[in-house]
């Protein structure tokens, strides 16, 4: 922390901010402390305020020739000239006194932004000296004014501020003008970087004495406008807006009208040309052409590198796409082969199952046929066993029964007239060449009678089949 700040009751300032300020502004540490305290630690405002207040010898040398200043009526005293050199600045107290003497003219030159710096500087002096020189109510009032001014200097949307500047510029100076980007300067810088172009910057100070003439005679000159719109990305901003105010501090703009040409390499932004003050359009155009020619090689090289990277990226993407397509084709072929293999295995399994099922069916049919044959043989044997012995010839009340099979074969046997027709049916079932007894019936030819069911229990005589008769073996499926 800063020892001076704690002794005077001012806001504390971090030493790293002081070191950063010294590295950028190339000023003594006590002045870095002073400006950081004067702006309540706001680094951008402190830096801008320093360059607004610093003598012209401390600003960066312009790369474009500025318009020669009008001759002064009186010569500057040597002592004053000596006091303007940066390496011979006096101690802290002398610097504060020099700032106080410069405030009236600085406020007239700088407009609203400089007025803010002057009030901030006054508030800082009040804080530094108030304990000894000012009553407490006056000190509090000065600090309140500083806070009010700082609150009024709020951040604005960079895009809205750029669009408002473009509209106001067109309203005042016409439509023959540079094609301003309606975005913050950093977004405009990204656009220029993406397009491999320089960024042409114009910082507009509307209250400056040379602004109207510069905009009318130089910035809106048709040939220069055509050159700017064709070659560069153009951005303009009113220094009263926060975005343009910070950029003015970064570019160390100490005079207006101010134009600059910015180039970009990777993540770095370089100032390749600048001009402060009014300048003729031909001179500005020639200087911009010279600067773009001198520094355009880096843009060409970066563009070539970008194209090479883009070509390599597209080549990799095409190779990756071709590899993915080949991989997908291989996967599809593998999937197709797997599907064919599975289909073949399924067909083989189905065929095996069909063969097994047919074999099982054949075996079952064979078993059923064997069982049926065995059952038929058993029934035939049972039927043969159930047949009573044949009565001897000449037995009274006998009945000679002849049966005719479907193939024309006939058989004859004697029965008792009192025997039920079932005994004839059992005898027929025991004959060779006759199937299962359940598959046929006995029938008389004339009159046509089929004997089934209870009729088999009736005697032969009752059916009129004694003393002799012919019966037909009739299959039941016919």
UniProtKB/TrEMBL annotation:
<dbReference type="InterPro" id="IPR036249">
    <property type="entry name" value="Thioredoxin-like_sf"/>
</dbReference>
<dbReference type="GO" id="GO:0043130">
    <property type="term" value="F:ubiquitin binding"/>
</dbReference>
<feature type="compositionally biased region" description="Pro residues">
    <location>
        <begin position="58"/>
        <end position="72"/>
    </location>
</feature>
<dbReference type="GO" id="GO:0036503">
    <property type="term" value="P:ERAD pathway"/>
</dbReference>
<dbReference type="Pfam" id="PF21021">
    <property type="entry name" value="FAF1"/>
</dbReference>
<dbReference type="InterPro" id="IPR006577">
    <property type="entry name" value="UAS"/>
</dbReference>
<feature type="compositionally biased region" description="Basic and acidic residues">
    <location>
        <begin position="329"/>
        <end position="340"/>
    </location>
</feature>
<feature type="compositionally biased region" description="Low complexity">
    <location>
        <begin position="73"/>
        <end position="83"/>
    </location>
</feature>
<dbReference type="InterPro" id="IPR009060">
    <property type="entry name" value="UBA-like_sf"/>
</dbReference>
<dbReference type="InterPro" id="IPR029071">
    <property type="entry name" value="Ubiquitin-like_domsf"/>
</dbReference>
<protein>
    <recommendedName>
        <fullName>UBX domain-containing protein</fullName>
    </recommendedName>
</protein>
<keyword id="KW-0175">Coiled coil</keyword>
<feature type="region of interest" description="Disordered">
    <location>
        <begin position="325"/>
        <end position="348"/>
    </location>
</feature>
<feature type="region of interest" description="Disordered">
    <location>
        <begin position="55"/>
        <end position="92"/>
    </location>
</feature>
<dbReference type="Pfam" id="PF14555">
    <property type="entry name" value="UBA_4"/>
</dbReference>
<dbReference type="InterPro" id="IPR049483">
    <property type="entry name" value="FAF1_2-like_UAS"/>
</dbReference>
<dbReference type="Pfam" id="PF00789">
    <property type="entry name" value="UBX"/>
</dbReference>
<keyword id="KW-0256">Endoplasmic reticulum</keyword>
<dbReference type="InterPro" id="IPR001012">
    <property type="entry name" value="UBX_dom"/>
</dbReference>
<dbReference type="GO" id="GO:0005783">
    <property type="term" value="C:endoplasmic reticulum"/>
</dbReference>
<feature type="domain" description="UBX">
    <location>
        <begin position="401"/>
        <end position="473"/>
    </location>
</feature>
<dbReference type="InterPro" id="IPR050730">
    <property type="entry name" value="UBX_domain-protein"/>
</dbReference>
